[in-house]
Design goal:
single chain; 319 residues; alpha+beta; 14 helices
């Protein structure tokens, strides 16, 4: 890398100018503790049906498999909080509509984050011609929380989210694995203290005291990733939640003063989140695929979205 008085500051400036809310630098080696915690979590079967977490373990442990010669990981975060919570807000009472997790209201974050990372890498290449990089946004086997924690983006909350002092946990995470030899940032100390509000608020008791989550009990997993029928014992806890669950974030004290997003694509409300339950149930699969285009709700597919809508409608009818 050519001589720069402060390459880390230059790179961080580029990241913020690209539109990211936060950026930090981590080394390319996992701390041994993070590996053991993750492996123990897998051994306990808490990943439920997320089998890809097992298959990609080697790449999660070794970024050299993503980018030979990897020296530093740039961890970035993008605030998606819309700034509208409460009884009459974005995720409040919806009548005959289901409630969508806040992150589902805007444009698909994979697209937004991916484009920003590519622009960031292009801008960095002009300043550092020797740069080689690999961008990651949740679709590649990368331990994004581990890198974010090492890079000082935030600390690990009891709700298993990365919590930032400035933005709370309403953050999308991404990484740029690079061959640049950069000085890493220092991790932050946890500020959760003895607070257990997220554990107590979880509708299904999915959160553990050891800062882990049992996916097979999590409503976000069940309504988005799970295929097939949702066990009946989880129907009532779903209430009006048709896609995801934000309860462990809603009650977090660090989210009470969260700043609204400055990203236009997250301020827009995707049309699918305004559809009523009967409409979703009666749409053809082709119509529903078209309705969920450029939305993260496409992840659960027409069958999953209709399944969720039927459960929510039954819950509303039984009130």
């Amino acid at each position: 890398m050519r001589a720069e008085p402060n390459p880390e500051a230059s790179i961080k400036r580029i990241a913020l100018e690209t539109g990211f809310s936060l950026v930090g630098i981590a080394g390319s080696v996992h701390p041994p503790l993070s590996k053991s915690i993750y492996n123990n979590w897998l051994v306990a079967g808490k990943q439920a049906g997320l089998h890809y977490l097992i298959g990609g373990r080697d790449k999660r442990d070794d970024p050299q498999l993503l980018l030979p010669g990897a020296r530093s990981i740039l961890s970035v975060a993008l605030n998606y909080f819309p700034g509208r919570l409460g009884p009459a807000g974005l995720d409040g009472p919806q009548g005959r509509r289901g409630r969508f997790s806040l992150y589902a209201h805007g444009l698909d974050y994979h697209q937004v984050m991916g484009e920003k990372l590519e622009r960031m890498a292009a801008a960095m290449s002009k300043r550092f011609p020797e740069l080689r990089s690999a961008s990651c946004v949740d679709t590649r086997p990368v331990a994004e929380r581990t890198w974010a924690l090492q890079a000082g983006i935030g600390w690990l909350g009891r709700n298993t989210c990365v919590i930032s002092p400035e933005f709370g946990s309403w953050l999308f995470l991404g990484e740029l694995v690079t061959n640049l030899d950069l000085k890493p940032d220092r991790p932050l100390s946890s500020s959760c203290g003895d607070c257990r509000l997220c554990i107590e608020a979880c509708p299904t008791g999915a959160l553990g005291e050891d800062f882990t989550l049992a996916a097979n009990r999590c409503l976000s997993y069940l309504t988005i990733e799970h295929r097939g029928d949702i066990p009946e014992r989880f129907h009532r806890p779903m209430a009006d939640r048709i896609f995801g669950c934000d309860e462990c974030q809603r009650v977090c004290p660090h989210n009470t003063a969260a700043l609204p997003t400055r990203t236009p694509d997250f301020k827009k409300k995707h049309p699918v989140t305004g559809l009523d339950l009967e409409t979703i149930i009666n749409m053809s699969d082709q119509e529903l695929r078209a309705a969920t285009r450029e939305s993260v709700t496409a992840r659960c597919g027409p069958a999953g979205l209709k399944r969720n809508a039927r459960i929510v409608l039954a819950n509303l009818n039984s009130r």
